[in-house]
Every structure is written in structure tokens, then in C-alpha cells.
């Protein structure tokens, strides 16, 4: 809508500029013609002036109201009621300092006579023209905004409908997923207490925890603004190491090796928010890394960095809600959106970019 308004006003502005220039020059030409007619009328009424000028008997110019006049003979100033400092002898008329100058040349057998007349530019018509353009622009702006608003409603209606359907699905999904996930995880813990271990059980546990993460992400998107924050101080290194264990099955399945360089870093925030932030950072780094590669994790000087092989095609859109570059991977396109929301809430600095064949995500927990 903004582009439509700007482009329409720009095109209208170009048209108005040409229109103003055309009308402006037409008004100036009209004033020059009027000046020429006044001079010719003056000469017709004072025919004897030129005869006296021939014999240099004319000492005083006849009075002419509202008009400056200067008479030159063979380029030399003879008399007049003004004497300009600069004359364009090769021009018939010109403008200078809001005044119009008209030069009338009369070749005579006894010499060349130049009569220069001048008067201030009549700005009343030009001012009226400017006022008309301003009023027109005001109505044009209102009209363009109205049309843009209506077009925006028409074109965005399908998108709005799709977003509402997706929001309804998220609401229903989060409501229905909560109980089954809790039951699955509870039963897995009970089986572990009975010393029942198997690859199948590990896979079930991993899948259940993945569903739990999706559920919590969806709940965060819907309810984060209503949840009460329990702010406390925590060791980010310990929390990070604890959360990495949850992704061991995914790391093994993709044969991805972690390279860690972590120091003790303390941060004050809601623990659930930091867990969600770390989980989404880890999930994105591992999920979008090719198999048989390395994921690098660095935590020092209050900055958490993660590197995974790959390349982001559209960095400007990557943190948008529901945006996904790779549709082959699961998810709703909420991970980086949630990370950005959490960082914005606490004043953390978040960045993501391509660097030497890696995707680098970084969160700086320094808030002052």
C-alpha cells in the first residue's frame, strides 16, 4: 500500500511540475506581452521624443507610471528613470531579481536606439496557481489513501483469512496436544524407572519431546504476552549442556558432531524463556545442518554463538512468523521468530547471517 501511495503521488507530482512550468511560462509571456504593449503605447504617445533624441535635445523622459525605462543610443546610456548594472544586449527579454526586462531596439539612419523597460513580476496569478495545486494535492492525497486502503483490504483479505485459519489451527492443536504428550512422557519415565531401555523407547521419547517442544512453541506464540515471568539468575553454560542431551538422538541420526567452547555466563531472565530460546537455537542449527557435518557452539563473554553448515537465501524474512526456507524439514517456521521475540523482550541482541559457508546465529546477553 505504501509503495502504491508513493508511486501514485510521484507520478502526479511529475505531471503537476510540468503543468506548473507550462502555466508559469504562459503567465510570464503574458506579462512580457503586456510590457511590450505598454512601451509601444508610450512611444506612440511621445513620437517627438525620438526626434529630440537624434539631436540630443531631450534632457528629461516623459513620465510613465508603474514602469522603469532607460534609453540608450548606440549602446550609451542617455536618460531614464533607472539605470540597470547589467544588460543582455542579445536578448529581447529576461528576468532578474523578480523583475521582467524588455529590450526594444529601433535602428535609425542616424544611429541605433535601445529602449529598456522593466517592471516587477506580478506574482498574484502565480500565487493563485500554487494555491490551486496545493488544494488539488490535498484532495489527491485523500483520494489515493482511500483507494489504497480499499485495495489493501481486497488484496489482503485472502492472506488475512489464511492467517486466521492458521491461528485457529494452532489454538485447537495446542489445546488437543497437551494431555496426550504429558501421558506419553509420563509413561516413558515409568518404563525407565523399571530399567527398560531400548532404541525404540529412545525414539519414542525423542519424538514425544519434539512434540512437546512444538506444543510449547505454539503456546508461546499464543499466550506469551499473558504469562507471568519468573525472573531469576541462572548459569547459561549448565542450562545449555543440559538441553543438548535432549537432542542426542537427532545428532546420532544425522551423524552430526558438536564442537563446544563454553564458559560460565550468568543471565537474569525467566528460565522457561531461556530454555525455549536455547532449544530453538539448537534445533535450528542441528535440523538445518547437512548430515555428517559439525555444529559449533561458543559461549563466552556474555555471547552465545552457533555455527552450522548451510546458507540462508533471504535473511530479511528469516525471523518472520511462519516463514520457512526449507519445506523439506518439519516445523511451523516459528523457531527464529520466537528467538527474536524473546531477545526483543529482554533487550538481548540477536543476529543471523551467512559466514564462510556457515549460518551463524548469535545472541548477546549483555544488556548494558
Strand content: 15-25%
CATH superfamily of the domain at 229-364: Histidine kinase-like ATPase, C-terminal domain
Helicity range: 40-55%
Task: Based on Cα principal axes, name the global outline.
Answer: rod-shaped
Distance separating the two termini = 38 Å
Strand order within the widest sheet? 2-1-5-4-3
Report the mean per-residue pLDDT as an integer: 79
CATH architecture of the domain at 229-364: 2-Layer Sandwich
Structural class: alpha+beta
Number of helices: 8
Number of strands: 12
* The CATH C-level class name of the domain at 229-364: Alpha Beta
The residue ranges in which pLDDT falls below 50 over 5 or more consecutive positions are none
How is the biggest beta sheet arranged?
5 strands, antiparallel
CATH topology of the domain at 229-364: Heat Shock Protein 90
Give the ordered list of helices and strands. HHEEEEEHHEHHEEHEEHEE
Q: Main attributes?
A:
368 residues; alpha+beta; Heat Shock Protein 90; five-stranded antiparallel beta sheet; five-stranded mixed beta sheet; 8 helices; 52% helix; 21% strand; rod-shaped
Secondary structure layout:
Elements: H1 2-45, H2 48-54, E1 68-73, E2 76-80, E3 93-96, E4 99-108, E5 111-120, H3 124-193, H4 199-223, E6 231-235, H5 236-244, H6 248-254, E7 257-262, E8 266-270, H7 271-287, E9 294-300, E10 303-309, H8 335-346, E11 349-355, E12 358-364
Parallel strand pairs: 7-9
Antiparallel strand pairs: 1-2, 1-5, 3-4, 4-5, 6-8, 9-10, 10-12, 11-12
Amino acid at each position: 500500500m505504501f509503495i502504491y501511495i508513493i508511486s501514485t503521488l510521484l507520478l502526479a507530482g511529475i505531471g503537476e511540475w510540468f503543468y506548473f512550468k507550462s502555466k508559469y511560462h504562459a503567465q510570464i509571456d503574458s506579462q512580457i506581452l503586456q510590457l511590450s504593449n505598454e512601451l509601444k503605447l508610450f512611444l506612440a504617445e511621445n513620437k517627438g521624443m525620438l526626434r529630440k533624441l537624434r539631436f540630443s535635445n531631450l534632457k528629461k523622459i516623459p513620465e510613465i507610471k508603474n514602469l522603469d525605462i532607460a534609453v540608450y543610443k548606440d549602446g550609451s546610456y542617455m536618460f531614464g528613470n533607472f539605470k540597470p548594472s547589467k544588460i543582455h544586449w542579445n536578448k529581447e527579454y529576461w528576468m532578474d531579481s523578480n523583475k521582467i526586462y524588455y529590450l526594444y531596439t529601433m535602428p535609425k539612419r542616424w544611429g541605433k536606439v535601445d529602449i529598456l523597460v522593466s517592471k516587477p513580476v506580478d506574482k498574484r496569478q502565480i500565487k493563485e496557481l500554487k494555491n490551486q495545486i496545493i488544494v488539488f494535492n490535498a484532495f489527491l492525497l485523500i483520494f489515493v489513501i482511500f483507494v489504497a486502503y480499499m485495495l489493501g483490504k481486497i488484496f489482503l483479505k485472502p492472506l488475512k483469512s489464511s492467517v486466521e485459519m492458521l491461528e485457529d489451527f494452532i489454538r485447537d492443536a495446542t489445546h488437543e496436544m497437551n494431555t496426550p504428550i504429558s501421558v506419553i512422557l509420563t509413561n516413558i519415565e515409568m518404563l525407565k524407572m523399571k530399567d527398560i531401555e531400548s532404541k525404540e523407547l529412545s525414539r519414542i521419547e525423542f519424538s514425544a519431546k519434539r512434540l512437546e517442544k512444538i506444543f510449547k512453541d505454539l503456546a508461546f506464540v499464543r499466550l506469551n504476552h499473558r504469562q507471568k515471568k519468573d525472573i531469576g539468575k541462572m548459569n547459561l553454560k549448565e542450562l545449555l549442556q543440559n538441553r543438548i542431551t535432549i537432542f542426542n538422538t537427532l545428532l546420532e541420526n544425522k551423524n552430526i558432531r558438536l564442537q563446544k567452547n563454553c564458559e560460565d555466563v550468568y543471565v537474569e531472565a525467566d528460565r522457561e524463556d531461556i530454555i525455549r530460546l536455547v532449544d530453538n537455537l539448537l534445533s535450528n542449527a542441528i535440523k538445518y545442518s547437512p548430515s555428517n557435518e559439525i555444529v559449533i557452539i561458543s559461549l563466552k563473554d556474555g555471547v552465545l554463538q552457533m555455527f552450522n553448515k548451510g546458507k540462508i537465501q533471504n535473511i530479511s524474512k528469516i525471523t518472520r512468523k511462519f516463514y520457512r526456507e526449507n519445506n523439506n524439514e518439519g516445523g511451523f517456521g516459528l523457531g527464529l521468530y520466537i528467538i527474536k521475540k524473546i531477545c526483543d523482550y529482554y533487550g538481548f541482541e540477536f543476529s543471523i547471517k551467512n559466514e564462510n559457508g556457515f549460518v551463524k546465529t548469535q545472541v548477546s546477553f549483555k544488556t548494558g
